[in-house]
Amino acid sequence: MAAGSEPPEFGDTAITSVDGRQGLLTYRGYRIEDLVRQPQYESVVGLLLDGTLPDTVGAGRLAAELRNRRNLPEEVGRVLAALPPDTPAVDGFRTCVSAMNDLARVFPPTRVEGMSLIARSPSLVAGLYRRSVGGPPIEPDPELDHVANYLWMVMGERAPPPRTRALERYFVLLSDHGISASTFALRIVLSTRSDLASAVSAALGALKGPLHGGAPPEVLDMLDAVGSVSQVESWIDSALERKQRLFGFGHPTYQVEDPRATLLRDFAREVATPARYALAESFERVALDRLAQRYPQSPRFTNVDFYGAVLLEAVGLPRTLFTPTFALARTAGWAAHALEQVAQGRLVRPPERYVGPGPRTWGRGA
Amino acid sequence: MAAGSEPPEFGDTAITSVDGRQGLLTYRGYRIEDLVRQPQYESVVGLLLDGTLPDTVGAGRLAAELRNRRNLPEEVGRVLAALPPDTPAVDGFRTCVSAMNDLARVFPPTRVEGMSLIARSPSLVAGLYRRSVGGPPIEPDPELDHVANYLWMVMGERAPPPRTRALERYFVLLSDHGISASTFALRIVLSTRSDLASAVSAALGALKGPLHGGAPPEVLDMLDAVGSVSQVESWIDSALERKQRLFGFGHPTYQVEDPRATLLRDFAREVATPARYALAESFERVALDRLAQRYPQSPRFTNVDFYGAVLLEAVGLPRTLFTPTFALARTAGWAAHALEQVAQGRLVRPPERYVGPGPRTWGRGA
Predict the structure, then answer these.
(1) B13–A104: do the CB atoms touch at under 8 Å?
(2) Is the CB of residue B25 less than 8 Å away from at least one CB of chain A?
(3) Cβ contact, residue pair B53, A11, below 8 Å
(4) Which residue in B15, B81, B208 is closest to A356 by CB distance?
């Protein structure tokens, strides 16, 4: 696992290790099960960006660094205000990051730009949400840490501590996952020596896709459609008959249960209403049973979307913010990968094979 | 070269074939040397998107399709007006494409979204330019074809026919180049089932990098610094001594001269002032000589940036628009690759190898 002495190749990363066979996920060598026990997103930001877990003093400094960068630059506020109010938050997020002129002017991006991105993004998403519901923006509260302040700026009221803690754990668990499609797009953009605003807006575009981060709200739509525990079996059987996709199951990397899903199940149980959790649990049990019957050769497990959606709902976030909230958690990983990509300076070599028509002539008497 | 019967892999493409050993570049099987003889960008758009060269009737229909979609949607105009006037056009281009809500709402993108993107983008770039110089925007002229209308909207006057023809040839030659870094980013974004606004803003972020499309203005800065033919040798020798990069030479794919560079040299000669062309030619001759001496094992050739920059200057475009103009030409290729990616539906598998620290524990008495 340790770095060899050969020069780095594109795709080499020392940030997150994903072992899909054993279901092990580590950030900088630490297992997520350890990191999530004393969740503080700021410390995980430090771990991902700087490579070491901060001590108490370091954690305080990181929290202050992020707190001091929460405000949106004036020009970003103007672009935000120019967007139609019904712009989906995930699209507004991408457009406003692209409009961060200060980040767009620094080549290559440094830790400063990375911290600015992480710190500002919750203000941006909350601002887009407030605009969409016709409410005034809510100022950041310097008394609150990163995740608690995000909830405050969305909801306009102090969330009960268990909800804040649940969301903080979600942020920790979703903060990085190796070179996913969004991170891949980000690293390709940076490999041409472009900037962080360009790279992160590319990542947001990829994360939006339902095969990446765009599926969590569908999990709840599905549970709503089922309605009650007594309907679970018949609903799932009829959905599978209609070849309808069951959201929240299966992952291309994991051959066992995704370790984040295991943790999110417990954290969701702590905050969801008993009825909601019972419905989700019943749905999960029947879905896994039916999927195992249907696909005995390629087992599907509960993925991060399933209880992630139940948790985000219980925390009080509206469904339109599920994908943007995933993206907010991931800004830490994106910033870390951006710095790693810049330090490696490796150009990507895209795969390419021409499979089109052979040489043909035109305009020469043809 | 023909498509086999096996399912397509990510990276399979039937659009452009790049043969770096022989210096052959074909679009849908037609050599660029043939296509550029009767340049009409609209026909090349049809060839790239639809796979066949349109006849006269088809070319007229394509031109009308593009002409009818030139106007910017109202919300894009509002975002454009919200950007600081000194926003670099390449950044404003990315932000405003991201703000194209109609394109952002269609999954998967179709030919309609592709044509809208190609048709609108010149209005966007010209609008950003006019704003940056403090002038009012210039309305599209329905009498003019795609490329001529772009020049009109930037300059506010009719360009002499040789200049329009030179720019049209530039658009044809730059309209696609296989899976470059920008196209790769675009295809990754679409592989998650995201939308065209997301995918093209990602592509624009990658194209901005100086290793991709961001270098052409530097070619002219270099020629300006040299000043005159008599200074070429001493300037280049001293630049190489200072390990300064010579812009406009070398390409990772080509082991012979890039066929686009060969053509652009001729086209630039037709429109550049004799003095400018003489300086460029002298610079090229000395640079190739010195580079061959320095790197006998890995020959460097004149690339598309070198005479591309001389041509764009002669056409009358300001340097700040060189990279955005390259991007405008490439919108055709991006739209074609978007449709191909969507049709293939192949997910990308990012390269990944963990090279960080091994398992370490934390928080368990450590």
Answers:
(1) no
(2) no
(3) no
(4) B15
Q: At A299, which CATH number?
A: 1.10.230.10
Same domain assignment for residues B147 and B243? no
> Do B87 and B138 lie in a common domain?
yes
pLDDT at position A4: 45
Three-state DSSP state, A127: helix
Partners of residue B208 in chain A, C-beta under 8 Å: 192, 194-195, 198
Q: What token pair was written down for A15?
A: 């940030």
Distance CA B145, CA A324 (A): 41
Residue appearing with tokens 């991105």? A117
Q: Chain A: give the shortest CA distance to residue B141, in Å.
A: 27
Question: Which one of A5, A44, A98, A326 makes the best mutation probe of the B interface by having the most chain B beta carbons within 10 Å?
Answer: A98
Is residue B251 part of the annotated active site? The answer reads yes
Measuring CA to CA, how many Å separate B331 from each of A345, B30, B90? 27, 19, 13
B357 lies in some domain: no
- In this structure, is residue B9 part of a structural domain? no
- Could you tell me the pTM of the whole model? 0.95
Buried-state track A317-340, b at ≥16 Cβ within 10 A, e below 16: bbebbbbbbbbbbbbbbbbbbbbb
Predicted ipTM of the assembly: 0.94
Separation of alpha carbons B316 and B311, rounded Å: 9
The pLDDT tens digits of the residues spanning B90-120 come to: 999 999 999 999 999 998 999 999 999 999 9
Q: Which of A21, A79, A180, A251 to mutate to test the interface with B (most CBs of B within 10 A)?
A: A79
For chain A, 366 residues long, the average pLDDT of each consecutive 10-residue run is 59 92 94 92 97 95 97 97 97 98 95 98 98 94 97 96 97 96 96 96 95 86 97 97 93 91 98 98 98 91 96 97 97 98 84 83 54
> Domain of B300?
216-314
A117 contacts A97 by C-beta, under 8 angstroms: yes
Tally of structural domains, chain B: 2
The DSSP secondary structure of B99-150, one letter per residue, reads T-HHHHT-SS--HHHHHHHHHHHHHHHHHHHHHHTTPPP----TTS-HHHHH
What is the C-alpha end-to-end distance of chain B, expressed in Å? Answer: 59
Contact list in B for residue A94 (CB cut-off 8 A) is 98, 198, 201
Which residue has 């429109």 as its token pair? B271
What is the Cα–Cα distance from B123 to B118, expressed in whole angstroms? Answer: 10
Q: Is residue A126 part of a domain?
A: yes
Q: Which of residues 218-277 of B touch A (CB under 8 A)?
A: 252
Same domain, A235 and A164: no
Among all residues of A, which ones are annotated catalytic? 251, 305
Residues in Cβ contact with A201 at an 8 Å cutoff, skipping those fewer than 6 apart: A94, A95, A97, A98, B94, B98, B201, B202, B205
Please name the residues between 275 and 334 in chain A that touch chain B, using a CB distance below 8 Å. Answer: none
User: Which residues, other chains included, contact B232 with Cβ-Cβ below 8 Å and sequence gap of 6+?
Assistant: B226, B279, B282, B283, B286
Active-site residue, B305 included: yes
Task: Please report the residues numbered 102 through 141 in chain A whose beta carbons come closer than 8 angstroms to any beta carbon of chain B.
Answer: 104, 107
Q: Do A198 and B205 touch (CB under 8 A)?
A: yes
Q: Which of residues 187-226 of A touch B (CB under 8 A)?
A: 188-195, 197-199, 201-202, 204-212, 214
**Helix H segments across chain B?**
32-35, 41-50, 56-67, 74-82, 89-98, 101-104, 111-132, 146-155, 161-173, 181-191, 196-207, 216-226, 232-241, 259-271, 274-294, 304-315, 322-344
Computed on alpha carbons and rounded to an integer, the radius of gyration of chain A in Å comes to 22
- Tell me the nearest-neighbour CA distance from B343 into chain A, angstroms: 14
Note whether B173 and B266 are same-domain residues: no
pLDDT digits (tens, 9 = 90+) for B227-281: 999 999 999 999 999 999 999 998 888 889 999 999 999 999 999 999 999 999 9
Per-residue pLDDT, A5: 54
